[in-house]
Each structure stands twice: as C-alpha cells, then as structure tokens.
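ASSEMBLY PREDICTION REQUEST
Request ID: AP-0331
Submitted by: J.K., bench scientist
Number of chains: two
Total residues: 759
Priority: normal
Notes: Please return the full assembly, not individual chains.
Input sequences:
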Amino acid sequence: MRERTQYLDESVKGFIIWSIIWGTIAVLVGILISLQLAWPQLNVAPYLTYGRLRPIHTNAGIFGWGIGSFIGLFFYITQRLTKTPLWSPGLARVTLWLFNIGIASAAVTLAMGINRTKEYAELEWPLAVVVAIIWVLFSVNVFMTIFNRKEEQMYVSLWYVMAALVGVTVLYVVNNLGVPLHLFKSYPIFAGTNDANVQWWYGHNAVAMVLTAPPLALFYYFLPKVTGNPIYSHRMGIIAFWSLIFMYLWTGAHHLLWTPVPDWIQTVAMAFSVMLIAPSWGAVMNGYLTMNGRWEQMKTNYLVKFLICGITFYGLQTLQGPMQSIRTFSAFIHYTDWVPGHVHMGTLGWVSMIIFAAIYYVATKMTDSEIYSVKLANTHFWLILIGQLIFSITMWIAGVQQGSMLLATNPDGSLHYSFMETMIAIFPYYKIRAISGFIYLAGLLLFIYNIYKTFQQNPASQTSKA
Amino acid sequence: MLEKNPVIFIILAFVVIMIGTTVTMIAPFKWINGAGDKIAEVKPYTPIQQEGRDIYMREGCNNCHSQTVRTLASDVERYGYGGTHSKSGEFIYDRPHLWGSRRTGPDLAHIGLKYTDPKGTWHRKHFENAQSVVPASNMPSYSFLNTPLSTKYSERKMKLLGFPYTQADLDDLKGKTEMDAIIAYMRKLGTDIPVKKAEAATVAPAVQKNPFTDLKAVEDEAKSLYKQHCASCHGEKREGTMGPALKGSAKSDAELYKIISQGIEANGMPAFASSLDEQKIWKLVTYIKLDTK
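STATUS: Completed
Returned structure:
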C-alpha cells in the first residue's frame, strides 16, 4: 500500500478507457466493411464507402486501440519498473486530450476523403504533425521517468519501450515527409518506386515498433507478475531484443516482391525475414520456459490463458510471416485474402490478447480489488479466440483458393478463370468472416462490461493515490 | 552498462535500426528513379489526369486496386493488356505511388491499354453502377462523381509537382465533372509505354481460315478466353449488355477476327491484337459462333 501511493495513474486509466472506445469503433467499422465486401449495396456514398472506411478501421485499430493502450500501460509499467512516479502527470493529461482530438479528427477527415493513401500513414499533414507531437510528449514523459529512476537496473520491458519510442519517431517522420498543397492536401517528397520502398520500410516496421516491441514489453512485464515466475532467461531476452531491432529494418521490401523495386533489396528482405524467426521465437520460448512447472496455471488463472495464447499467436505469426516473405509463396498469396487473415491473427490474436490481459491486471491493481467476474473473462477469452480463428482460417482458405484460381492456365497458356470468377468463389468466405467479426465483438462487449464493473467496485480508488 | 544508462541505450538502439534503414531504404535513392530507370515515352500527368488521380486517392481506390503488374506470367497475361510487367520508370511521376497491397478488384497499372474508347463509355457505366456491367461485382457505386470538378488548385498542383501544362490544358478543365477526371486518369494508366499495337493490328492473320472447326476440342479454352476478355461487355451468355449480343452473330469468321483484332474505336470496342495471339482470337471466333454453325 505504501508503494502504491507514489504512482500517478490517472492518465493510465484515461488512456485505457479511451483506447477501449477507439478499439470498439475499429471492430464496428471492421464488421461494416466486411459486410460491404459481401454486399456492396451497404456502401453509403460518399462518406461510408469501403475505400474511405478501411483506413478508419486500420487507424482506429492501430493508433486508437494499439497506441492508446500502449501509452497508458507504458505509463503504468514504467513507474513500477523504475520505482519512480511519472515525470509529469500534467503532460500526460495533455497527451490524452491531444490523443483523443487527434484520433477523432482522423476518423472525420478520413471519412471526408482527406487521405494520403500510404497505408497506416494516411493522415494528412496537419494531423500527422499532431500524431508526432503526441508521440514526442509521451516519449519525453516516459524517458524522463526512466532517467529519474530509483531502480538502477533497467528491465527488458523498458528496452522494448525505449526502442519503440525511437523507432516510431524515425519511421513516422520519414514516411510523412511531403510538400503541402493546402491545409488538407500534400504530396510526398518521394516518387514511384522510391515512395513504395519508403512506404514499406515504414509499413513493415510499424509492425515491429508498434505491434511487436510494445506488446513484448507488456508480455515480459505481465507474465512474471501474473504467474509469480521470474522470466526464464535474461540473457536470451538481451540477444532476442538486439537481433530483433537490428533485423526488422531490412525486411520492408518483402511487401514488394516481383515489383519494380530492385531485386537485391527484395532478396535481402527475404533473407532477413527468415532470419527474424530466431529472435521472435527467442521471446516465445522465453515465455514458454517461464511457465516451466507452472503450466497448471493455464487452467486456474484466466490471465495466463490470454498471455500464453497471445505469445503462441506471436509465434505462429512469426513463422507465417517469413513464409509469406519467400518469393514463390508470395507470388501465390500476395494481394489475396490470405494477407488479411495473417494480419488479423497478429492484431486480434497476439496484440489484443496481451492488451486484454494487461488491462484486466491493471484494472484490479488500480482498484485494489479482484476482477468483477472471472467467468465473464473466461467467456471473453473463448469468444475472441473463436472469432479470430474463424476470421483467419476462412481468409487463408479464401486466399489459397483465389491464388490458385488466378494462376490457373489452359494448355494454350491463356488464363483459365476470369478475375470475376475468382471473386465469386470467395464471396461465401466473406460472409463467414463477417460472422466471425460479430463473435469477436460479443467477446469485446463482455470485456468492456467486466472492466466497467471492476472500476465501479472501488470508486474511491481515483482519489486514494495522490 | 547498457542496462543502466538510458541515454547510451537510446543512442545505440537508434544506430542499430539505422543500419538496415541505410542499406535498404536510404542508399537506393542513389539509383532508383535515376537515369537507368527513365523511360523516354513516360509523360507526366496533365491537369485533368492529376485531378483524376487525386479523386482516386480521395476515394481510397488503392484499398482494392493495385497498380503494379508483377514480373509473373499470370500477372502479365491478366493485367498487362498487351504491355509487359510494370517497370520503375513508369512511376517516376507518381507522388505518392499507388501500388496497393490487396486486389479485391483487378490491377489497374495498364488499364488504359484495355479500354481505349476516348469517350470512356465503359468506365462511365462501370463507375456509376458496376453491377450493370459486371453483374457479380462488389464494387460500390460512384455515381456521386457526376459533380462539377473543382479546379481551384489545379494550376498550383502542376507547379508543385513540376509538371508541364498549358493554358489550354487548364481551360479544358472548365465544365468537366469529377467523373470525367477520374476517367481521364484511367485512360492514361499504362498507355505511355510503347506497345507494338499498331503494328500487330495491321498484320494479317497467317491463317486466313478459322483453324478450329472442331468446336468441342477448344470449347473450354475458348470459353475461358471469352469470360476473361468479352463477358464484361457482351454478357456471360453472349446475350449483350453494354456491347451488342453476340449469340447467333451473322458476321463471318473473318469479319469477327478483324473486329476482335483491331477493335471498333467509335463504339468503344477495344483492339485485342496486342493482348491475344491469332490462335486465341480464332478460338474466340469459334466460341462466339458456337451454336450458329
């Protein structure tokens, strides 16, 4: 109790709540666009067409849910790992305000068609500046807390946090370099093949610095906390960390195989993508071996389910990813629905499962109570697991089916199927995918209810820590 | 030491991420889009084409349509439309690139080679109501693009991008709709690259008579060629939709061959001589006349 009073968690709670709101919007928009792909008459022109909504879905998911919850949870774990209160709670409050204004404006402007079209960097320059400011304010706060720390040793989670702070800054700034035409339109300084190469250097490393390093930081912190087991190997953590952040930056061009990007860049990207299996699985094995002798917790502790299932999806993701980076396999599945299947295993499975566990844990700590309902949390777990698996598996099947149809030729060398025939073949999968979205949403709603009730159990918690 | 000094740690992490960045992202600036990539025939966008490109971006068309024909035979066959795979030099005026990452719709890098009709009849109908042309299509309706084109920034865009333009180009924008602009952009895509089109179209077929008299033997191939190249305008069952009905065509084999090969520009019928060889065109002729013989 003595310890808890020194931590400044007001913004932690704020970021968690708002990230859940944006995450829910991401899922709702995701369901809508999945329905639009099956039933095009659900497009409401011009604001609610697929082309304008899809960036809202990805931005709400990555920036709203992902980055929002990471900011909150990093404020939480940084204070605990450094045994130091947050450097500036005032700055954190400002960051939260800016974050919400930024994400809300992003949704509105994207619906208006103000869109740079570069994936995960769609926001036009004024909002890109806001995003950069949010990130810098957050980074300074975390870094100064680390700088002023009372605990000398920096735990591996803090390394991932700091790597993300630097990495995201570099990536985001470079990929957004442009010349403004007016307030709502700019043109990038890069053209054609250069722009594509920069974009996927950014795109793939956004996966590294936003959707890999931060959830790993959380995983390394929360798994020992939740299980009571120390992390299996600190040394393995060190090796995996440095090789991960070194190798990732070489791999962007695996999104551009068979395109006009120079062949050697593609080949280097392929090689490094395969090599990345090692550091990725370093983290996975560190997680599994931490459970040594305590595997019964998978049955008894609902949080362990989320964490271990999450790291398992990370392991599968980092095997499937390198596989897709090989030219021959890419020729087969690139541009098909296989890829959304892959991406959603990472986002719905790996990243979100870790965030869910972290938020459950933090909510109970902040209210100094137990979770409102373990039963609901378990139901939540199964619903999101089933929803995500149906999503990914149907999309993998659809991708393989469409990929093989697109490549099929007649004896005279002409193509066997028209493009439309390949689409007609996969429409049934689109309908199944939409159902999986509703299942995931049901799980998410149980989570929200459970967190709401948990926070309500101890309304005084807000004021108890000053 | 590293685990105890956050400043040194951050600097080192920065250095580590910059190694791969420098080799694979910064260094290539030296030659990508350089002299080796240049294709003399590739021209910058005109004001109306650039306006169309900006509408394409605004509507997020890149979320469903890619713009790179990969160096794969099936890609070239499906999306080359007589051209070959995409080359770096085709994109040097693209800010940003619009290569995309998902093909929920077909690749558009060379779509201008497919629909050559100057009036853009096919595109117009397809944008307004895709299902009227391709019944099973899941493309949304873009009839709302039938709205006057704003030309407020047209000249400034040309200046910012450094593209040449004339006053006539700008005057030409008057009275145009957003639909006109996006169609102008569609018609430009892929058309700069030299394709041996005119040459191929004038070459007389080596075999003057349809070599495929045994209909059954080529039916499967002919049918898929038909679906690939003809069905979107002439209907899945040759009943005619945008283009005329083909079932029971009274035209001779040689006449049909000529039309498919050279197209009828005034009607918007594309020429297929550059994308289909003689054998395939004859197979199509056979299929079109399937139950009239």
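REVIEWER COMMENTS: The domain at 211-459 of chain A is CATH 1.20.210.10 (Cytochrome C Oxidase; Chain A).
SIGN-OFF: pending second reviewer
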